[in-house]
TrEMBL record:
Organism placement in taxonomy: Bacteria, Bacillati, Actinomycetota, Actinomycetes, Micrococcales
The protein's name in its UniProt record: Pyranose oxidase
Region span, Disordered: 43-73
Cofactor dependence: FAD
UniProt superkingdom: Bacteria
Organism: Naasia aerilata
């Protein structure tokens, strides 16, 4: 018996970080050891790469996160020799495609843009940091409303939520005013055009320090903090198996990617927060195979466009002096392409979509200098509608024990199809995007549907459920069905069809799981753990 239980957490993204923070704050003596397959990129673990001012340093941090697509840096990540990647990068910077085309790559012809990040902080080191709340049918019906309110506000605190980012920007205000003229009358009270809630801390000069897993870790990574003494983060440490005995996880088998030494690390409780594809893959590789594992994959079909803002229309709500002030502020942080951030949130039944409108002084792609809207005085907006995908068993990732991927795990095949409901909603979202664009200016990139997987919001593959009826992987507290002490975390746990960015919801679900884990550990007669051997 020990009164210092050990929790092993797989994955150091925002969700792993939330588990670590809440368990350690809720339990007086527990220790957390976190294993991350990728490298630490920044001095402060898990910080957003967007905050790195130096362009070369930023590019290197992104490349280091790209696992098999990390170019010449691949060997330093402990990847097996001979990993061959074909073709050009098509993933977002800081991510790597799952189906990268070389030997050991996943098979995802119907979900080609699926990608992951492999680094301390996970995708949370590269994300846009938009954290709107879920609403209506996006919510989980079996979590009581007042508890949900507490969970989601706790998640907002953990992520340093800011619901009024750039709210003082007159350019952002003019964009909102024009969108409101177009849509205001048809949107319900409280669900109209507004600023997009983001995770980050406004700085005195008007810029934002974007949040990553670092802010979620908070005191766990502050030198001298008592909680830091009970927390250990091991990077370049690939968890190969969750070990189990009956209904209990007993620990994890971990490969140190620097030395390639593999050993067992005992634990009293295991949390797998290794993203929506690699969490089910690790469970599968560990022989933990609930029928819903990997299935019910959803994401957000994305329709995007770029618009050159119309001077006359903008001038109805902002002056040229306002524009000068805005551009001067933007010049303080030229490495960060995002200015004022606005949105129209989802409202059912008429607007089950989420619109995101990001102002930038330059378009996101090179524009021929002879283009009539090159160098547009009032700048541009990049806009996108996220639509819903209804969960279906048939959509998902399956694993092949006979074919190993580049890391030696059962390889993934992703199957995915849009149904009639999704196609109809995408059509409506496209029509809304056309209206939004026309109300603001002229399209320089027409609305277009991105290839499946592009949202990077992969959900449902380890979904929670109210009862163990084969349609979910974990219980309402994210405990894998049939296990007392094995939790899953991340967007994979979201069981509903949503249109909003999912991280806030996943952090809220993680807070629920972590509170339960801490309470169970406190109540348990913890036996058998001999602590963690030193790295
Ligand atoms: P991740 O952040 O993906 O972290 C999982 C970690 O687990 C990874 O670091 C991985 O290396 C590690 N891992 C995997 N397998 C193993 C193993 N076997 N052993 C050890 N470690 C392992 N979301 C939003 O809500 N809003 C946004 O605006 C937004 N914008 C985005 C923009 C970009 C460019 C990207 C890339 C993502 C964006 N996202 C956004 C998605 C968001 O980043 C994710 O929802 C979030 O990071 C999920 O957190 P996580 O901890 O579950 O997983």
């Amino acid at each position: 018996m020990t009164d210092t239980p050990t929790i092993a957490i797989v994955g150091s993204g925002p969700i792993g970080a939330a588990y670590a923070r809440v368990v350690l704050e809720s339990h007086p003596t527990a220790r957390v050891v976190m294993f991350e397959a990728g490298p630490q990129l920044t001095e402060r673990p898990g910080a957003s790469v967007r905050n790195i001012p130096d362009a070369d340093e930023k590019a290197r941090a992104r490349e280091l996160s790209q696992g098999p697509q990390a170019g010449s840096l691949r060997e330093s990540l402990g990847l097996p020799a001979g990993v061959v990647v074909e073709g050009m990068f098509t993933a977002r910077q800081g991510t790597h495609l799952l189906d990268f085309g070389g030997e050991g790559s996943a098979h995802a012809p119907t979900f080609p843009a699926a990608a992951a990040s492999t680094n301390v902080g996970g995708m949370g080191a590269h994300w846009t940091a938009a954290i709107p709340r879920p609403s209506g049918s996006e919510l989980v019906s079996f979590i009581p409303g007042d508890e949900w309110e507490d969970l989601v506000s706790t998640a907002e605190k953990l992520l340093h939520a800011n619901s009024a980012a750039f709210a003082d920007s007159p350019i952002g205000g003019a964009i909102r005013a024009l969108l409101d003229e177009e849509f205001g009358a048809e949107l319900p009270e409280g669900r109209g055009v507004s600023t997009l809630p983001v995770a980050g801390d406004p700085q005195p000069d008007g810029t934002i320090q974007w949040a990553g897993a670092d802010v979620v870790f908070g005191p766990l990574i502050e030198v001298g903090s008592p909680l830091a003494e009970r927390f250990e983060l091991r990077d370049l440490s690939l968890v190969r198996r969750v070990e189990t005995e009956g209904a209990r996880a007993t620990g994890v088998t971990v490969e140190d990617l620097r030395t390639h030494v593999t050993r067992f690390v005992p634990a009293d409780l295991v949390v797998v927060a290794a993203d929506a594809f690699r969490t089910p893959q690790l469970l599968w590789a560990s022989g933990i195979r609930p029928p819903a594992l990997g299935h019910y994959l959803t994401e957000h079909p994305m329709v995007i466009s770029t618009v050159a803002l119309d001077g006359e229309r903008m001038a109805r709500f902002a002056t040229e002096d306002d524009l000068k002030v805005e551009l001067a502020r933007r010049a303080l942080n030229p490495a960060d392409p995002v200015g004022a951030v606005n949105r129209i949130p989802s409202s059912e039944p008429d607007h089950p979509f989420s619109l995101q409108v990001m102002y930038a002084e330059n378009p996101p792609f090179p524009l021929d200098p002879t283009h009539p809207h090159a160098g547009n005085t009032w700048g541009y907006v990049n806009m996108g509608y996220g639509a819903r995908k209804q969960p279906r068993f048939e959509d998902g990732v399956t694993f092949d024990d006979a074919e190993l991927d580049y890391r030696g795990f059962p390889n993934m095949t992703i199957s995915y199809e849009l149904g009639d409901q999704e196609k109809a909603e995408i059509e409506r979202a496209t029509a809304m995007l056309r209206r939004a664009g026309k109300s603001l200016g002229t399209f320089i990139a027409e609305p277009r549907l991105l290839p499946p997987g592009s949202s990077l919001h992969f959900q449902g593959t380890t979904r929670i459920g109210e009862v163990d009826d084969g349609t979910s992987v974990a219980d309402p507290f994210s405990r894998v069905w049939g296990f007392d002490n094995l939790y899953v975390g991340g967007n994979g746990t979201i069981p509903t069809a949503t249109s909003m960015n999912p991280t806030l919801m996943s952090v809220a679900l993680a807070v629920r799981g972590a509170r339960k884990a801490a309470a169970d550990l406190a109540a348990a007669d913890v036996t058998g753990s001999e602590g963690i051997p030193a790295a």
